[in-house]
Every structure is written in C-alpha cells, then in structure tokens.
Amino acid sequence: MVLVTLGPAANSARSQDSTRARLDSLVEALRLAQARLDALERQVADAAESGVHTRSGTRMEISGRVMVQAFANTRRVNNVDDPQFVRPDTSDAVPVRGGGMTMRQSVIAIRVTSPDVAGAQFSGDVQTDFYGGQQPSSGGRTFPLVRLRIARASLRWAKSELMVGQDAPLIAQVNPVSIAASGTPNFAAAGNLWLWLPQARLTIGGMAPKTAAIQLAVVAPTNGDPAAAFDTDLDPAERSQRPFFEGRMRVRWEMSERPGEMGCGGHIGWIAINGSGLTPRSLVPSQAVACDIVAPMSILELRAEAYKGQALRGLGGGGIGQSTSPTSTAVHDVGGWAQINVAPSTIWSVGAGYGIDNPRDSDISPTGRLRNAAGAVYFTTHPAGPLLLGVELRRVATTYAGRKLVNDHFNLAFGFEF
After folding, report:
1. What is the rounded average pLDDT of the residues 154-171?
2. How far apart, in whole angstroms, are the C-alpha atoms of residue 394 and residue 14?
C-alpha cells in the first residue's frame, strides 16, 4: 500500500523536474538568442555609422576597375595605348614603333537608386576614367587627367522611361567587349559610332520582355573637332544653332543580366560652314541610319552595329574622323562592326571582332584617310577574387592614296575590380 501510495507522487516529482529542466533550457536558449541579436544590432549600427550615406537617402553602389596596361605598336598611330587608325611615318625608311605602360584606362563608377521618385523607379550613375589627356610635364601619361564618361539620371514608369544626361548616341548604343579599349571603345573610326554626348531621351513601351519600344532623343550638337586647352569656342555644329535629333525603334526579348535587343534608328543634325567672299554661311546636314543587335545564345553572344550616313565625325569618328570635304560638302560614309564573345564560365571569356569604315573616296582630301579596318581578338580571366588579367591583339589597316599602312597592337592588362 505504501508503494502504491508513493509511486504516483514520485512520478509527479520527476515530471516536474523534467519540465523545469526544459524551461531552464528554453530560457537559456532565449538568452543566447537575445545576446546574438544584440551583437548583430551593434554590428549593423556600426556599419551604418561608418558607411557612405547620400544626402537624399538613396541607395548607393561604388564600383570600378583599376588596371595597368603594357602595350606595343609596330607603326605610328593616333593613340599609342588605344589606337584607332594608322598615321604615316615621318620617314618611310624608319617606321615608328615602340611600347610602354599606362594606367589611364582605369574606371570608377557610382550608382544610386530609389524605388519611388515621382511614382517611378529612379536610377542615376556616373562613370569617370583618367583618359582626359595628360599634364604638360615630364610625367606625360603617368599624370593623366580625370574625364567624365557617362552621367545619367533615369525615371522608369510601368510603360515609359525618361533619361537625361550624357550617354552614347541613341542610334549606336552598343560597344564591343574589350579590356584594352575602354578609354575609346574598340572599332572607333572603324565602324563604331560611340561618342558620349549630353542628351534627353524618352522611351515609350518596351519595359517587358518580347515587347517593342519607340525612343526619341534631343542630343547636344558637336562636330567632333579637337579642343585645345581652355578652348571654349563654339564648334561648327554648335554654330548651326540647332540640336541633333535621333529616333529609334527597338525590340527586347531578354531582360536578365544578359539582355537581348535589336533596334534601328535615324539621326539628323547640321554643321555650319563659314562662307568666304560673296558666299554666305551654309548648313551641311549630318545624317545617318543605323541598326544594332546584342544577341546572347547560351555561352555565346553576338554584338554588331552598322550605319550609313554623312558628316558623322561628331558621333565618334565616323568617316575615319573626317566630317566635311575640301569643298565644304559632307563626307558620305558606310561603316559597321561585329563581334562574337564566348564565356563558358564567370572565370574566363574570349572573343573576336572586325570593324570597317569606308567613306566615299571623292569626298576625301588627297592626303586623307580612304578606308580603315580593324580586327581584334581578346582573352580575359578572373583568376582569383577581384583580380583581372587580359590580353588583346589588334590589327588596324588604314588606306591612304596609293598605299595601305598596317599596325599590330599588343595589349596586356592586369588589375582588379571592385
């Protein structure tokens, strides 16, 4: 009877002890979890305190590429570290060749975003490099000047987008992939219109995959004339007192990190030619029609662009940098380029491309450039973390009256991305 009486009491005591142990264990787990949360909050607060903030409260990202490049050329060119065309040697008996190193194609970019600005998604970005020239000193390219490349502010609604800033021409937005040609994109003066110009651009439609869009742009007029130090005078396109106008229709079938897009458009502008004697000043039209495509296909990608027009130096070297003829008429021009890129992994990629610019011979001066072609192959790899290594071989052939000059350009690049 004693065992029968005390048994349930003992079982109850053991149950209470087990429950108390479980409660104590749960309390300890909660205490540890709270300690971890407190530590995480302190870490987040420290990061927020030491991080970079924008005055408007928008999200900001900083990225860039720091790169040193070794280069070599077999002929005299217009730009030794990123050549676009070949120049005649001062003496045919002694060709000008050589090599060097530079870091002025390093790029720094800042991007800000906000999910709701005037009922739209806002994004803005600025890209700069050190390709803006060089200090007049013994350092030369060792002391490059900072240059503004791209600066854009975009508002995107459900079915439209407005962009104001500096960007590539609306009719020629595609550039080849190249580690050796970022200061001036590859195939410039060989079929690639690229020059970043101030503009206001409106896109209607095309905000979803497999949809079409109409794009319109008002672009700053420019003739592409080289500017001297402290030269703020109006160039011939600005003296026309009219902006450039461009329009384009595009179709996108892929909106991921590897977008697929094809489009065609037109360009119209004017260049003022000063008269002499009894001849009044006249306006030479700058005109072009152009088509471009970016087509990702598994590990492959096709990039291409083609145009036909006249007086196109202001869009980035059209006519091999020749806009008007000796008789002050427009230089008619046909050009284009294509490139195939292969990226089997995120570690490495290879590619090859070819571009050509062929202005009308009768529009060119006797000493001018009649034809310019460029072919390039490259290999790029990210061996570890942010490290970047690449090599590019480029052959540029420029035709003058009675002769063709060929330059072989070698470029080896090493750096890091962030």
Report:
1. 97
2. 85
Q: Collapse the DSSP code of 146 into the 3-class scheme (helix H, G, I; strand E, B; otherwise coil) and give the result.
A: coil
For residue 219, give the H/E element and its range.
strand 211-219
What confidence tens digit (pLDDT) does each residue in 388-404 have? 999 999 999 999 998 99
Of 27-31, 151-155, 221-225, least confident by mean pLDDT is 27-31
User: Helix (H, G, I), strand (E, B), or coil: what is residue 362?
Assistant: helix
Residue labelled with tokens 């145009």: 307
CA distance 108 to 149: 10
Would you give the DSSP letter of residue 187? T
pLDDT tens figures, 240-297: 999 999 999 999 997 777 889 999 999 999 999 875 444 456 899 999 999 999 999 9
- What is the full DSSP assignment across 85-123? SB---S-TTS---EEEEE-TT-EEEEEEEEEEETTEEEE
CA distance 328 to 346: 51
Sign of CA dihedral 367, 319, 304, 316: positive
Closest CA to 76 of 60, 87, 90, 61: 87
Residue 406 to residue 399: CA distance in whole angstroms: 9
Q: What is the chain's mean pLDDT, rounded?
A: 89
- The closest alpha carbon to 323, from 195, 182, 217, belongs to 195
CATH class of 52-417: mainly beta
- Residue 46 phi, psi (nearest 5): -65, -40
Is-contact 411 69, C-beta < 8 A? yes
**Contact between 165 and 127 (Cβ < 8 Å):** no
Which structure tokens are listed for 200? 């206001």
* Cα gap 225→229, rounded to integer Å: 13
CA distance 4 to 401: 121
Lowest-confidence region among 109-118, 188-197, 220-229: 220-229
308: exposed, middle or buried (C-beta count within 10 Å: 0-12, 13-18, 19+)? middle
